[in-house]
Write a structure and sequence with these properties.
alpha/beta; Rossmann fold; 10-stranded mixed sheet
Length: 279
């Protein structure tokens, strides 16, 4: 049985008239990462130009690229990163599943990473850029409500293989239904060192798995007008074996909490700093 290491391909931005894929004559050195045994290949993150990523041509997202396929597992296509600029990425989890995403690479080596999970990339507003400016590598993934929790593991494995990402300091943020998926994914994966949830939904299911999450820290937020999420956040904080903070916003659900109460983003970033940068 064969297993493959994940890789993240970063490409220099391409013009609209240029080739869709960046091809390099000499691959960069192979990046090694410890893989969790799986029965299918681990994912890759394929960087596409704006036409391919945002549908301005007729190429199907996630199609095969012979140029990209020629590089060995773990190969990295630079450019030198400024740590602030997002790059559109296509997160290929398996032959049938490709997610859209954005990647903010770290400005310096061994920076903590934060994975953001939600149903709309734009809904995060300034949070990804704020995290990048605060010294985090950031991967934003747009997922569906029924995304299997096991795919969180796949995304984390890809993320830690990126150059400069500190695999020992990884946080995950989930919003709304994606908060439930983030929780279930982190429960079974020790790569997740800290978990932040905006408006978690499934109280009984999530409370039942809290013993498996252990004493890792949790940060929770919910709107006072969202009784389901507020009850869930309160119950999770009570059931969590480790530190858990609950923040109540006056109103809002999921990513909208960040727009309704802007100071929540600052509080969340400070919390991530404490647990990932200065543990």
């Amino acid at each position: 049985m064969r297993f493959f290491l994940p890789f993240i391909l970063l490409a220099i931005p391409l013009s609209l008239t240029s080739c869709r894929y960046l091809k390099a004559a000499t691959p960069a050195p192979t990046l090694m990462a410890t893989a969790i045994p799986r029965h299918d290949p681990l994912p890759t993150i394929e960087v596409l130009d704006s036409r391919a990523l945002y549908g301005q041509d007729n190429r199907a997202i996630g199609g095969t690229s012979l140029g990209l396929a020629s590089f060995p597992p773990g190969a990295i296509l630079p450019p030198v990163s400024d740590g602030l600029t997002e790059r559109g990425v296509s997160i290929i989890l398996d032959a049938d599943t490709t997610l859209r995403g954005e990647y903010y690479p770290p400005a310096e080596p061994r920076q903590p990473g934060v994975l953001l999970l939600g149903d709309r990339m734009a809904g995060w507003a300034a949070l990804p850029a704020m995290l990048a400016q605060s010294g985090f590598a950031v991967l934003v993934a747009q997922i569906e409500p029924l995304t299997p929790a096991r795919q969180v593991e796949a995304m984390l494995q890809s993320f830690i293989a990126a150059p400069g990402v500190d695999a020992g300091s990884i946080g995950v943020i989930g919003a709304d239904e994606a908060a439930d998926i983030a929780t279930l994914g982190c429960v079974v994966n020790s790569l997740c060192d800290a978990l932040a949830l905006l408006s978690p939904r499934s109280r009984d299911t999530l409370v039942n798995v809290m013993p498996s999450y252990g004493d890792r820290p949790m940060w929770l937020a919910a709107g006072q007008d969202d009784r389901e999420a507020l009850d869930t956040a309160t119950a999770l904080a009570a059931a969590a074996p480790g530190e858990a903070q609950v923040h109540q916003a006056s109103a809002g659900r999921g990513m909208a909490l960040l727009q309704r109460q802007p100071d929540l983003a600052d509080e969340l970033i400070s919390w991530l700093h404490r647990h990932l940068k200065n543990p």
